[in-house]
Amino acid sequence: MNSKDDSLHSVPEEISQNIVWAIQGALREEKKPFSSRLLKIALSTIAFSLILWIPFLLSFRDQIGSIWAAALSIWTLALAVGFSLYYYPQPRLVLPGLWSRMILARLLLVSTVTTIIEILVCPSFVFLESPLSWNPLVPLTDRLMAFGGMGLCMAFCGFFFSFLSALFGLGSAWKVLRGSHLKSIPAILGVLLFSQLPILFVQVFSEDLRSFAIDWIAGLLVGTGLAILFAFLLSRFFRRES
Amino acid sequence: MAKDGPPDEELMDAYSHGQETAFLELYGRYEARAFSFLKLSLGKSRSHLAQEIFQKTWLKVHQSRRSFDRKKRFSSWFFTIAMNTLRDEVGQAREKRIHENIDNAVLVSSEPLADELFSRAQNLEKLSHCLGRLPDRQREIVLLIDLEGFSSQEASKMLALSDSAVRQLLFRARKGLRELFSTEES
Question: Do B51 and A10 lie within an 8 Å CB cutoff?
Answer without folding.
Answer: no
